[in-house]
């Protein structure tokens, strides 16, 4: 199966990488088990900030899953073969992101042992149930896509059918994920019709950026090569995606700033001038404007696109943080003494702060390792075997 | 659990039981409550008895008393700069259109035939979606084993497991015995009125109609069954969304 064997000097690096991933997985699992045994009190969460790092990771992972299906389905529907060299890699990224996102819900549950109740007795009005259904569909589509793409020759008709199916599903996935937050009357900052379009645009940005970064890294560590035209194409896509994302964010901020209701405005002020303002303005500057300038710059070096992609990914991660916490910091009823903390020593916490605990950081390391393990496995099993003469080639039977 | 324990309700003298008996109600009651802000003195009696009635552990409250004003140290003042103390007792509003019930992925939060929003702890997976969805912030989560756990048999209901969400039940276990919720009978100022919203002759409906009754965050469309009666002689108490504290 594996036709590409790592060369000698790489095998040490390979071993170190595998050991690192295994250590990360173990640490994460250990922290998860510890948290499970103690209760969520070992996290930095409280009755005011009920969702934290795990939900940020969940939102972010679903976002970065967009790349694969866009590169494959979008290109297929546009009859473009420009991205044929990266489409296996892109789908691997998607599958890894969706699988990890689904898993990220588990440590966020107070009683993971009862998670099966969501399957056994789903409540149809809950956006969380909708998300469970569309995520499962999305994951199956990704796996089937990958299976089709690893056939030789790649069957043309199934690929096209999958493209037609997967594009609307991808849009629904990001919309439903946005609606988990956007349909809540209790959180004015989330409760905007623009949240679903914003989630889609952020997903396009971070998903495409992830494909760029993964391709760049894979090129560095294996003999796999991506053509310049792929980078040029992804760069052009990113320019449009970042522009759309910034435009949507701008209209949202503008509308709220000028004419938003007081409760919505208070939550926006947390971002503009309040305690999240450093994160917000870094997101705008280093997560959007700087990479946008890099993408538009004359430098056609792959590294430039990869740096821009990395900054964009970090920018979208910062955006997830901002979206989540801006809505949680100011409860609608803010009268003293506030919402009970829930644990001795923090009877009431009207002025809420949240810092992830070491347990949450540990679980996040596990989540990251899980994601990277699937990407590594996918690259090794689905991408490299099909790379002939160092290039990922695809023969489509017609 | 020892079976020889006597229910405090049964142990109450007949007079007290009569005092705590539910007002006239229809065959299909829709339970509701009115909190008279003119009468509330902010003593926290209802909050404390709620804790003992429902075995709510340290650090958690199903029912709490909010002070109108910038903070506890800086309550509201009137136009002359004098203290103008007002309180807003806050617990589950038992919304007809309950956001928490809609978003619960397992139907652990449900609404019973009498309109009460309840949590089935067996089905709660602890995702805390209901807490994100509740505009009133009245739900509390069991973050871990309490440092000072409630001794077995302290309250009139079972304690809730770690990892589940809990909140005011309108003392549904007392209603089954034809007794009003504990926060109602225990209020020294008689600021709380409990009754059947479906019974036009009940004291609750009469008060809601004769007094300036308001619900919290009406604009959110949750249709709470808990109403607040505004003071008649003073300016209305403003419970607006968010206090702009920077």
Task: List SSEs of chain A in N-to-C order.
Answer: HHHHHHEHHHHHHEEHEEE
- Beta-strand percent range of chain B: 5-15%
* C-alpha geometry of chain B: globular
Low-confidence stretches of chain A are: none
Low-confidence stretches of chain B: none
Give the helix tally of chain A: 13
Main sheet: strand order of chain B? 8-1-10-9
CATH topology of chain A: Formate dehydrogenase/DMSO reductase fold
Largest interface, C-beta closer than 8 angstroms, per-chain residues:
A-B, 66 and 64 residues
Oligomer: heterodimer
Helix content of chain A: 55-70%
Large-scale geometry of chain A:
globular
Number of strands of chain A: 6
Name the strands of the widest sheet of chain A in spatial order: 1-6
Q: What's the CATH H-level superfamily name of chain A? A: Formate dehydrogenase/DMSO reductase domain
Could you tell me the strand content of chain A as a percent range? Answer: under 5%
Report the structural category of chain A: mainly alpha
Major sheet details of chain B = 4 strands, mixed
What would the keywords be for this entry?
A: 398 residues; mainly alpha; Formate dehydrogenase/DMSO reductase fold; two-stranded antiparallel ribbon; 6 strands; B: 246 residues; alpha+beta; four-stranded mixed β-sheet; 19% helix
Provide a short characterization of the protein structure.
The complex is a heterodimer of chains A (398) and B (246). By secondary structure, chain A is mainly α. Chain A has helices at 8-38, 53-64, 66-77, 87-108, 117-120, 127-149, 156-182, 195-221, 228-259, 262-272, 277-296, 302-329, 358-383, and strands spanning 154-155, 340-343, 346-348, 387-388, 391-392, 396-397.
């Amino acid at each position: 199966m594996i036709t590409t064997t790592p060369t000698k000097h790489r095998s040490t690096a390979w071993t170190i990488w595998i050991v690192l991933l295994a250590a990360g997985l173990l640490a994460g699992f250990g922290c998860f088990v510890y948290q499970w045994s103690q209760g969520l009190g070992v996290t930095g969460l409280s009755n005011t900030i009920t969702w934290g790092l795990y939900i940020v990771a969940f939102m972010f992972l679903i976002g970065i899953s967009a790349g694969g299906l866009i590169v494959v389905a979008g290109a297929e529907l546009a009859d473009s073969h420009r991205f044929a060299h990266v489409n296996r890699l892109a789908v691997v990224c998607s599958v890894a992101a969706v699988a990890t996102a689904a898993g990220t819900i588990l440590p966020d549950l107070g009683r993971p042992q009862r998670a099966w109740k969501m399957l056994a007795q789903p409540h149809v009005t809950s956006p969380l149930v909708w998300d469970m259904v569309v995520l499962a569909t999305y994951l199956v589509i990704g796996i089937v896509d990958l299976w089709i793409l690893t056939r030789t020759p790649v069957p043309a008709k199934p690929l096209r059918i999958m493209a037609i199916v997967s594009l609307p599903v991808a849009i629904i996935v990001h919309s439903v994920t946005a609606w988990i937050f956007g349909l809540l009357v209790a959180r004015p900052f989330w409760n905007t019709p623009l949240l679903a379009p914003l989630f889609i645009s952020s997903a396009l940005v971070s998903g495409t950026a992830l494909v760029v970064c993964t391709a760049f890294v894979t090129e560095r560590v294996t003999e796999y090569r991506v053509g310049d035209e792929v980078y040029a194409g992804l760069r052009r896509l990113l320019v449009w995606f970042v522009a759309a994302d910034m435009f949507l964010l701008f209209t949202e901020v503008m509308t709220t700033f000028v004419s938003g209701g007081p409760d919505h405005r208070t939550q926006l002020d947390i971002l503009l001038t309040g305690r999240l303002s450093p994160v917000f303005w870094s997101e705008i500057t280093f997560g959007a404007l700087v990479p946008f300038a890099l993408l538009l710059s004359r430098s056609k070096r792959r590294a430039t696109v990869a740096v821009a992609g990395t900054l964009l990914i970090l920018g979208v991660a910062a955006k997830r943080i901002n979206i989540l916490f801006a809505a949680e910091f100011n409860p609608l009823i803010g009268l003293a003494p506030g919402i009970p903390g829930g644990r001795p020593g923090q009877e009431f916490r009207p002025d809420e702060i949240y810092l992830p605990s070491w347990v949450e950081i540990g679980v996040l390391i596990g989540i990251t390792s899980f994601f990277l393990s699937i990407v590594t496995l996918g690259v090794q099993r689905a991408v490299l075997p099909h790379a002939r003469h160092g290039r990922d080639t695809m023969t489509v039977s017609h | 659990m020892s079976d020889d324990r006597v229910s405090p309700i049964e142990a109450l003298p007949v007079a007290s039981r009569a005092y705590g008996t539910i007002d006239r109600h229809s065959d299909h009651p829709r339970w509701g409550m009115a909190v008279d802000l003119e009468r509330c003195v902010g003593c926290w009696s209802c909050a404390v008895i709620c804790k003992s009635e429902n075995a709510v552990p340290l650090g958690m409250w199903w029912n709490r008393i909010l002070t109108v004003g910038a903070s506890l140290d800086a309550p509201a003042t009137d136009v002359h700069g004098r203290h103008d103390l007002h309180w807003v007792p806050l617990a589950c509003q038992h919304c007809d259109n309950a956001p928490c019930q809609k978003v619960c992925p397992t139907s652990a939060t449900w609404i019973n035939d009498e309109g009460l929003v309840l949590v089935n702890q067996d089905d709660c997976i602890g995702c805390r979606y209901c807490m994100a969805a509740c505009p009133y912030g009245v739900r509390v989560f069991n973050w871990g084993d309490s440092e000072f756990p409630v001794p077995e048999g302290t309250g009139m209901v079972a304690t809730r497991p770690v990892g589940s969400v809990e909140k005011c039940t309108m003392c549904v276990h007392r209603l089954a015995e034809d007794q009003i919720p504990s926060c109602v009978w225990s209020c020294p100022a008689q600021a709380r009125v409990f009754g059947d919203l479906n019974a036009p002759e009940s004291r609750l409906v009469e008060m809601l109609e004769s007094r300036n009754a308001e619900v919290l965050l009406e604009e959110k469309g949750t249709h709470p069954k808990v109403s607040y009666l505004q003071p008649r002689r003073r300016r209305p108490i403003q419970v607006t969304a968010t206090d702009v504290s920077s």
